[in-house]
Amino acid sequence: MAKFCFWFKIVSLSLVCALNIYLFVISFGINYKYELAKVHVQFSESMPTMDSWINSPFGKLKSYLFNVTNAEEFLSGRDKKLRLEQIGPIVYNIVGYNDILNRTEDSVTFRKHRYRHVEFLPDESVSPDILNKTIVQFNSVLIGAAAKFAQTTKNMFGRMGFNAVTLGEQLFMPGSVYYFLWEFTRPSLEMFSKLLPLASNCGTLYNALKEKDEVYTVNIGTKHGVENFFRIQSYNDKLQIQEQLKHRSGPIDESCPINVKDTLDNSLFPPFITKETPLSIMASESCRVLPLHYQRDDEHEGIKGYRYVLLRPNEKAPDCLATTNGVELPLGMFDVGKCVINDAPAAFSAPHFYGSSYNWSEHFEGLNPNAEEHEGFILLEPTSGIPIYEKYRFQSVTVMPNMNGFHRNLMKLSHMMVPTFWYEFEMGQLPLYVRILMRLYSSPYFQTTLMALELLCALGSLYGLIRLLRKLCQKICATPVVQLETILNAHPHPQLTTSPAPQGESLKPKSDLNTNLYPNPNPNPSAPELETDLSSHSQPEKPETHPNSQLDESKDAKYCCVSHRYV
């Protein structure tokens, strides 16, 4: 077993040393980041970010409503402006799911369930019982129907008929936060929904979190190039967003952002993004392609990335989205009327009209637009193309045209952009191991660090291998040396001859053996030689032994302590 372990160490260290030397040498000719990117775009199940992607989007959805605090004063004419009080955040935990339907070598098709799990978080909301709080809001059913009817019916009799039908509807309605978010409906709407294809529940979150049919086919693998990883091939088996084609006659201008080819679904992005790389995402909640605009370098939890804004201040909407219900939109807003329930005349802007040319202060009080709280952005790690952090923010606005001929309360809303609610989706934290890998992968010293580790491993294994081989050489090449030690009897040796010495002189032993075989035990020549006083002893006479006689080992001498030692 010991021999097996010894040889196992030698073989293991040899392989480790050879492998690291090989990797170190070839590292001068390859780019580790690019090689890892080629593995990443294969989109295999062993990809570190796969679990996060499958259970995405994940994060917190924060909703905000506007409470009208001076409704009676406004209707009576005492106040010319509406005072709005922001209510929120009302926080929900969101976990989605991406179900892979089919995959090939160069594409994958999956169905996106954005809101598979929705859970109210009372402790993270503005107050634990916020859903029970009573507020006053615009009657969005009434004002939406009136705005749409105003553009389709220009004659006064038609408008008078609308006033008669909606006589019992109030312009401002009290209700709980939960009611406006999840169960907002009106008797007149329920009646019409039985006759027309209209949705009777106009709760903002009830409709915003509805399951939509979203099937994506995207690029994977290296066939299309790593720079085209996860770019969309089709959306619901089409190249254009079908909701935007409703009620349109004639061809659509190419500048209209409804072509999904080569856009992204906002879950993964190509690696090696530069500041000039064109990026756009499929924004299903607004039924359009939304271009991302590089803003600046930023950092989140120690990971550096590129910050992209969703809507630039005073950005002009494409021509096909520049009007809602025939009303030209201010800068910083775009039409979503074909993407909301009942085709309501609605538009999206940044919260509190941040970055919009709309003069909100002419009609409202209590808003405070600022970039820190209201600018939507996505933060991408450019080397891996993985989103680090995002705050997806938009405000829903009901666009009111000229309301002449309607009820006097509705006429007060002429040419207003009425904010109904706004939301923020805050991306959740990536798993720890993904963040660690991203930090290593995005480091400018990634290649150098790996090469240094390879060199250290090679040197360390080589040193251990040399030590083992040295021990092996000692075992194989060493020769035994026999040391013979002879201890003579206390009695005179047969080869030793003694003769009486004169009194006062010492008797010195004489040996016929070679003195080189028995070296002098006293190496110091200046030390006195051993002298034995024999004057008081009588020595028996011994027969002389011939110098050449052979020692009789069994009788005349005793040999002991024969040892072998290896040097």
Walk me through this protein's architecture.
- A hairpin with a 2-residue loop joins β10 (293-300) and β11 (303-309).
- The chain has 13 helices and 21 strands.
- The chain is α+β, with helices and mostly antiparallel strands and 567 residues long.
- Helix content is 24%, strand content 26%.
- The strands form five sheets. Strands 1, 2, 3, 6, 7, 10, 11, 14, 15, 16, 17, 18 and 19 form a 13-stranded mixed sheet that branches.
- The two termini are 26 Å apart.
> Which residue ranges are poorly predicted, with pLDDT under 50 across at least 5 consecutive positions?
495-567
Sheet-strand content, in percent, reads: 25-35%
Query: What is the terminal-to-terminal distance?
Result: 26 Å
Largest sheet: 13 strands, mixed
Helical content (DSSP H or I, runs of 4+) = 10-25%
- The backbone outline, from C-alpha atoms, is elongated
Number of helices: 13
Structural class: alpha+beta
Oligomer: single chain
Give descriptors for this structure.
single chain; 567 residues; alpha+beta; 13-stranded mixed sheet; two-stranded antiparallel sheet; 21 strands; disordered C terminus
